[in-house]
Give the backbone structure.
Amino acid sequence: MGFFLDKSRFPTDDEVSGVLGSGRPLWDELIGVIGTTYSPLTQEWAWNGKSAGWSMRLRRLKRAVLYMGAREGWFLVAFAFGERAVEAALASDLPDAAKAIVRAAPKYPEARAVRVEVRSVEDLDVVVRLAALKMAN
């Protein structure tokens, strides 16, 4: 179950901080790294339905880089990985746990839904590396 379930309004910065708590610095760091790497970057709230609520979408021009969903003290990052990106991730030097996440990602006609929990700097590093693989493929 997500947070920010009121479709009629975007979450405020204070609400995001309130949910993320100690995870807020990692959230901000990810936005900064992705913004620097994939400029020009747009941050926009995206409605994902009644059970998931709002998520932050980071987009370079018309291409979504990733989605971020706040949780209590941490956040979830989601990617839409095409098959080339999946193959690149599995052939890379990502940690085995990250490769397992990519392998297990649900497959849809348009892409695989790769989701990574960000609770630590190490998780953040994996997300940054996955973003690079997605954008290169």
Q: What stands out?
A: The chain has one domain: 13-136. The chain has a mean pLDDT of 95.
